[in-house]
TrEMBL record:
InterPro entries associated with the record: Carotenoid_Oase (IPR004294)
Source organism of the structure: Citrus sinensis
Chain ranges passing through the membrane: none
Keyword S-adenosyl-L-methionine in annotation: no
Protein name per the record: Carotenoid cleavage dioxygenase 7
Length: 614
């Protein structure tokens, strides 16, 4: 069955390649043939071996090609499917033991409208992609639709199939719409993460309630209310900031239409307890030097089992977080109010996010260990006092966290995550987006060799607590000494919150001349027990997003990895199936399936594997 093409693919506005890539290293066109894909292994003895497949393809790797490759990773896709499409298998075969189920992937789908406005990738309307695996027939079917949020419905005219952006969004400034005095800031685009829980398929964003989706059709049902008040810990009386908060509420809630609470887009699944864990924060805390976080725990039927609020006297911006059997863990990404930026943001002359800037005033990173079950907590530790990690880092994403107790009652907590430097992180320049020109500059994501350590990379944070909960030691080190630019750490989800051996992530080997660090082109597998590192690379002028683990057995690495290959040089997307046990070997690739060219889609953010089909 074929989809109806609703509109042609439209690229974003471009800088001149010669102008845009001046910060990048000047390179020459390689003369030798470049392998299309490689597998690389870094064993315990640090010797590196490379296996090269027989299929090779000579492709240009210079700054001009790199510029256009980067732009086409963020090409607007206006088409939607009207019925499932069976994907064409171009390499390998679907394994007979591949589980039936659905891989959901969300991310932005639209970056430009028809009236001259361009938005930041984080403000792009949510575009939900679904890949259904039939374990009986071995077929994979594909569907994709926009999440019909309130903003999407307002900005898209289905009669003419045209778009006019009316909402600013937190990261953008409109050019072809209302600019000065535009109070439509909180543009819930439902584009960040996706979840199937309690029979409900949800698309989440960082600033409001999730949108529920009909899994069989990908039609939007509407918003799902998941937030309300909580049992407050750490607050017994009102202070100056409570008064300030009360003054801000009418402005934020009334004028800017912000919801009282922001549900974070990152959730956690407690596999042993079969619980969904979520967290929200208060809207006014974005502008105040204090933070309120409410944690919720739901059973498999979406019944609320546990809810509590924590008040922290620090100005924090949390995107992802961790949990263990007894703790919620927050890494204090510290921010501060930018007075001048606030004035221009409120007036509509700059993005709303310019009201904030990072706060690198402390040389350490506070880590808050919050009790999941205060009535059952052992020890006298005051959770208000953070553990100070001996490294200043901005936490981006968490792969897993767990805790181990010894016979004396001492606790060892380990967190495997991705972090970057405060010096590099900039709210306004994420993905290289320039809000003044509405364009993308890949050089911002690809620093020179002497500065690449500032970019996102994998870390292991270890915290040792005595029997009373007092911190005895805290260390931060590169995970398995892998120091290359990396992000999107994931594990076998059935081991979430438990001790794990294998971590998977997206990374770059650093071999590209013009885009050495981002976008990612490699899946890396790290064994924290043996300290080994194995990689599988998608090849030249091809990129990947977040990998997803599909469990199928009892062993931790028994299953398959799914990842999208973005072959931007030929404007194609492929669904890749890898064997986790074979990463680092020549036969790691299990299958490659092709998405029809007219449905080629931009870079996705986060995905979810559901054991159910449509």
């Amino acid at each position: 069955m074929q989809a109806v093409l609703l509109h042609k693919i439209s690229p974003p506005r471009f800088l001149s390649p010669l102008t845009a890539l001046r910060p990048l290293q000047k390179v020459s066109t390689p003369q030798a043939k470049i392998p299309r894909a490689v597998s690389l292994t870094k064993p315990d003895n640090n010797q590196v071996s490379i296996s090269t497949p027989t299929t090779v393809q000579a492709e240009i790797d210079d700054s001009t090609a790199a510029f256009w490759d980067y732009q086409f990773l963020f090409v607007s896709q206006r088409s939607e499917t009207t019925a499932p499409i069976t994907l064409h298998l171009v390499d390998g075969a679907i394994p007979s033991d591949f589980p039936s189920g659905t891989y959901y992937l969300t991310g932005p789908g639209l970056f430009t409208d028809d009236h001259g406005s361009t938005v930041h990738p984080l403000d792009g309307h949510g575009y939900l992609r679904a890949f259904e695996f039939d374990g009986v027939t071995g077929e994979v079917k594909y569907m994709a639709k926009y999440v019909k949020t309130d903003a999407q419905v307002e900005e898209h005219d289905p009669q003419t199939d045209t778009w006019r952006f009316t909402h600013r969004g937190p990261f953008s400034v409109l050019k072809g719409g209302k600019k000065f005095g535009n109070t439509k800031v909180m543009k819930n685009v439902a584009n960040t993460s996706v979840l199937k829980w309690g029979g409900k398929l949800l698309c989440l964003w960082e600033g409001g309630d999730p949108y529920e989706i009909e899994s069989g059709t990908l039609d939007t049902i509407g918003q799902l209310q998941m937030m309300d008040g909580g049992d407050s810990l750490g607050k017994n009386s009102k202070d100056l900031w409570d008064v300030a908060a009360e003054m801000l509420k009418p402005i934020l809630y009334g004028v800017f239409k912000m919801p009282p609470k922001r549900l974070l887009s990152h959730y956690k699944l407690d596999a042993p307890r079969n619980r969904l864990l979520t967290v929200s924060c208060n809207a006014e805390d974005m502008l105040l030097p204090r933070s309120n976080f409410t944690f919720y725990e739901f059973d498999s039927n979406f019944k609320l089992l546990n809810k509590q609020e924590f008040n922290i006297l620090d100005h924090l911006m949390i995107h992802d977080w961790a949990f263990t059997d007894t703790h919620y863990i927050l890494f204090a990404n510290r921010v501060k109010l930018d007075v001048l930026g606030s004035m221009t943001a409120v007036s509509g002359l700059s993005p709303m996010i310019s009201a904030l800037s990072v706060n690198p005033s402390k040389p350490t990173s506070p880590v808050y260990l919050l009790p999941r079950f205060p009535n059952k907590s052992v020890g006298v530790r005051d959770w208000r006092v953070p553990v100070e990690a001996p490294s200043q880092m901005w936490l981006l994403h968490v792969g897993n966290a767990f805790e181990l107790k010894d016979v004396d009652g001492n606790t060892e907590i380990q967190i495997h995550a991705c972090s970057c430097s405060y010096e590099w992180f900039n709210f306004q320049n994420l993905f290289g987006y320039n809000w003044q020109s509405g364009r993308l500059d890949p050089s911002i994501m690809n620093l020179k060799e002497s500065e690449y350590q500032l970019l996102p990379h994998l870390v292991q944070v270890s915290i040792s607590l005595d029997v009373d909960g007092n911190c005895q030691k805290c260390t931060v080190e590169p995970l398995n000494q892998w120091k290359k630019s990396s992000d999107f750490p994931i594990i076998n989800p059935t081991y979430s919150g438990q001790k794990t051996t294998c971590i998977y992530a997206a990374t770059s080997l650093g071999t590209r001349r013009a885009l050495p660090h981002f976008p990612f082109d490699t899946v890396v597998k790290l064994n924290v027990l043996t300290k080994s590192v194995q990689t599988w690379s998608v090849g030249t002028r091809r990129f990947i997003g977040e990998p997803i683990f599909v469990p199928k057995g009892v062993e931790e690495d028994d299953g398959y990895l799914l990842v999208i290959e973005y072959a931007v040089s030929i404007q194609r997307c492929y669904l890749i199936i890898l064997n986790p046990k074979k990463i680092g070997e020549g036969d790691a690739l299990v299958a490659r399936l092709e998405v029809p060219r007219h449905l080629n889609f931009p870079l996705g953010f986060h995905g979810f594997w559901d054991n159910n089909t449509w």
